[in-house]
Input
Amino acid sequence: MMKKHLRALVLGAAAGGGLPQWNCGCENCVAARDPSNPLMPQSQSSLAITVDGNEWAILNASPDIRTQLQDNPPLHPKSRRDTPIRSILLTNGDIDHVAGLLILREKQPFRVYLTGEILNVIEANPIFQALDRSLVNFEVVGLDQPFDILPGLTSELFAVPGKVPLYMEEGEVVTDLEGEQTVGVRLASGNERMWYIPGCAKLTPKICDSLKGEKTVLFDGTVFENDEMLQAKVGQKTGARMGHMAMSGDAGSIAGLADLDISRKIYVHINNTNPVWRHDTKERLVVENAGWEIAFDGMEIEA
Output
């Protein structure tokens, strides 16, 4: 019998909109459109995980999921109508994490794991009825309650400060809600563990205590500086207003995770404006000198 071994495949390393974003002419997007430039296009946030290489779970169903599955042979069908994808887990209700469910509507059975709050987001939009509920089972899981996302792979959801999806915002928006709106994922198979936190408005003592001494953490890398989009003249929102920590600064993730003795720290969910995409920037050097890696589409990660 093959020994189970926890590993991940980055399907999409970019934040919502991808790189390049369709309507953006920032320096990164221009470079990503240029075939002669080493900066490669990156699709929207998603991660595939497995313990046996045959059965897979997807963390967040990006709008780019069709291309992501096509680009990764381990996720191809093995027969006329088939998929190695057994389950999908959603960490929030953002468009870049749920819209891909609509691509997977072709009468294929799989489970969707999500919190009650995220299910409410799905149920409020009738377009998701395109998923045949006799085949696609939405299973609500509670916070801090372990469950098997795949045979031999245990998952546990935990609250992460964040906000409701943009399309649900009303009145004054609280960007660091703690509850079922935004979650991180702890993955465990035997003694192997991996943490996936693609969205985080701030680090709490509880999160830091949990991550202390861990081997592999994939963390929200949306923006390098809080006012990055304003500096690039492509938007009016700060990272904090979008519900994401900056990498840099006293309140940033580089400083916040620096003393936790994490063996491998990998940034995911990276915005198209973030200068760390380019290898020749001072921001990229800062990140790498701090012991961080920048995820990319197709990156393989072993626990």
Notes: The longest strand covers residues 153-159.
